[in-house]
Specification:
The complex is a heterodimer of chains A (about 375) and B (about 70). By secondary structure, chain A is of the alpha/beta class. A seven-stranded mixed beta sheet of chain A has the order 1-2-3-7-4-6-5. In chain A, helix 2 runs antiparallel to helix 5 and helix 4 crosses helix 5. Chain B has about 70 residues and is mainly β. Chain B has a single domain, classed as Ribosomal protein L30/S12 (60s Ribosomal Protein L30, Chain: A), CATH 3.30.1330.30. Chain B starts with 14 loop residues before the first strand and ends in a 5-residue tail after the last strand. The chains are: A alpha/beta (about 375), B mainly beta (about 70).
Chain lengths: ~375, ~70
Amino acid sequence: MLPLQLGPGQFGDNTLYLLLFYLPFLLFLFYGQRIQAFMILGEVSRALGKLKIMREKSRKEVIDYLVNHLKPKSDPQEQVDQLLEYFTIMPVDLDPSGIVRKIEHVVTVRNDRIRSEIRRLAPETDLVKVSTAENILEAASSINYIYKLVRHFYLLGKRTSNIYILVQLQMIMPMILQEADALVNALEAFKLSQPIGDGIGPMVVGRMMLNHEKMDISKDTVMVKSEYKDRNLYLIKAVGPGGNVGEPGTAVERLISELGVKINSIIMIDAALKLEGEKTGEVAEGVGAAIGGIGVDRFKIEEVATKMNIPLYAVVIKQSLIDAISVMRKEIAEAAEKVTKIVYRLVEEKTQPNDNVLIVGVGNTLGVAQ
Amino acid sequence: MATMIPSIGEKRGKQIVYTIEECLGCGEKNKRTFTVGDYVFKQNGQCKKCSGNILITMIYAEPIKPTQ
């Protein structure tokens, strides 16, 4: 039987055995944190390597798309690198009053600038290709930013030997990698102008718009007036099939405040990020302004709805982040019919004949016309 | 909390993108693989059965099922 208790009795006077036994304890006592930091550094470094590959791949995709589809007169590499490093300084929020208008202004300037830069590369290209290039560039820009941010914290943790920075980075790394992977997958859908999960709202409203006369209501946004069971329906979505999200906030504001249409109810349809365990393509009803983004459009819709006392109804289609920015899944596409039925039921139940109902399809309308 | 940490979703495997066409006259549906230039609500020719207009009604991705 092997002795379970170790100590001088078992080893005799051999101090070498003693040292070999206690050395790891001493090593971990004094250098444990450094060893742990070394291991975390290795893990984060490998993840950083993956992110670097994704960044290079996305950059190449942007250049390839520009060269093959927009056919610029000069080599676009330098300009692409410039656009990938493009930044937006958000307005100061020390005095938050009126900040939404300032954010709107800054974001509009940013979008216009990027669009004009792409148009400068290829002035004769159609708008669908320009919006597709914008989408690809935006995804590549996000991957580039993720890579740079992770690299920053990795180098900071390494230089200062700060294990707490490295541990935090290690903990969120799987989610960061998944998000970057989702963006890389999105590039494929953008490149081929295939509808993405986020486009389910415009898809539902786009079907309602078929065979009706369209009018521009705000930038990259169209409106249709139709009828359903003696109600006037005002349908709004971004202009497709290019990759636009439009300006639904401005459109709603303009219709109600400028054009003076007395709206009795607003119904918004949008994709919503699901929680783990929820089914993709599940449809849920609720109240409020169903719209994501930076918050400008939501603010405008909530503002005008509150001012005019208009009830806001929301219908959302659940999906994960990957589903929202990748090619639309069958479950999501098939949910469109169910959503349409819910919207018509809401119109029947919540409004009276001769009422004006505003229906907004929110999301990126890539690959979805009207 | 939910909006801060939503479901990122599972990594997608290989998938095929399909285009669903529907005849506005007889309602006949056709499922084919996606080709560049397809988009939802595109008028895509005429029906061979009733000469009605064909409309692309859906474009979606389905995972490739492993063959038995």
